[in-house]
Amino acid sequence: MASVTLAESAKLALNELTAGVIEDVITVSPMFQFLPFDSFSGNALQYTRENALGGVGAMVIGDTIGSADENALTGGTGEARDAATFTSVSVGLTTLVGQADVNGLIQATRSSDGNDQAAIQIASKAKHLGRLFQHLLILGDDTNAEEFDGLDVLNQQSVATGTNGGALSFAFLDELLDLVTDKDGQVDYILMPARTLRSYKALLRALGGTTPGDTSIQVVGSDGTERTILAYDGVPIFRNDYIPTTVTKGGSSNTTTIYAGTFDDGSRSHGISGLTSEVESGISVVDVGESETKDEHIWRVKWYTSLALFSEKGLAAADGITN
Q: Residue 220's pLDDT is what?
């Protein structure tokens, strides 16, 4: 008589289930944990930018203040009596939302083996909200009423990489950092996709005697975790896989963009800051209750959020990067 087979014996045994879910939907964006968030109440956050400085000029004895032959300083208006002008900016919040509907039978019979079915669904929705924010951080466009403007739309300063773009170079990076002036030349971050980060490492290796480790700095995230980040001229370079690498510029396809900028320091006068509601900040979970028509319990996961660029001098980009 033949012995019991492995397949037959399996019918009388249970598989051991490891509690938890291993994350396999991952897009790298470590800068997210360093992004500051500001909260406000009301319909929108409104702030005012300088448009042009009030006019001033040099004069000699006997000149009339405000005459056309006076020399206005760069950044000012035409004559010494001309007033300063300003631009008012208003940023509202948008709603990022997901809803977890869990069948009562599933929750009652499938949550005793270490995996709470409802908790896993809620956690997955919360993770996806974070991913959606990070996507909009780069590519959001408020011409779509459901989105907020991301870096691609907010940016008003760009490095000239040529009609057809060009390969990454130290010169492009120098020009990029020079454009960020709102903190008196201090730059808080550089963002680039993984392929461009590999190209940067290749530039370093080509110098001879310089390795990526020689140009790294230690940074501490919002969770207190210290990590080593590659840097250029003392500015941390964050890999960001939400930046597209398939953009066509002139005759070059598959180009990408590098961003550099500053974080706001709470003064609402520098660089970028995430925005959220003062009353309900961050991602929240609302227990909606039982469905009226189905045997399902409903949890709503939501985030009232947006992005502000306080100073346009706190953000710059180099687009058309071909590697």
A: 65
Taking alpha carbons only, the member of 44, 49, 34, 32 closest to residue 270 is: 49
- Counting residues of the chain whose pLDDT is more than 90, the rounded percentage is 47
- According to the model, what pLDDT value does residue 222 have? 57
Residue 125 to residue 102: CA distance in whole angstroms:
13
Residue 268 near residue 310 (C-beta atoms within 8 A): yes
N- to C-terminal Cα distance for the chain?
67
Q: What CA–CA distance (Å, rounded) separates 293 from 300?
A: 17
Give 53's DSSP letter: B
Count how many residues are written for the chain.
Answer: 323
303 neighbors 282 (Cβ within 8 angstroms): yes
227 sits in which H/E element: strand 226-232
Q: Are 319 and 165 in contact (CB under 8 A)?
A: yes
Count of CB atoms situated within 10 Å of the CB of 145: 6
CA distance 321 to 192: 10
DSSP 62: T
DSSP codes, 100-137: EEEEHHHHHHSSSSS--HHHHHHHHHHHHHHHHHHHHH
Confidence category of residue 116, pLDDT binned at 50, 70, 90: confident
pLDDT at 75: 54
* Parallel, antiparallel or unpaired: strands 272-277 and 296-309: antiparallel
**Upper half-sphere CA count for residue 99 (Cβ side, 13 Å):** 9
The predicted structure's pLDDT at residue 28: 67
- The CATH code of domain 30-43+89-321 reads 3.90.1690
CB 307 within 8 A of CB 136: yes
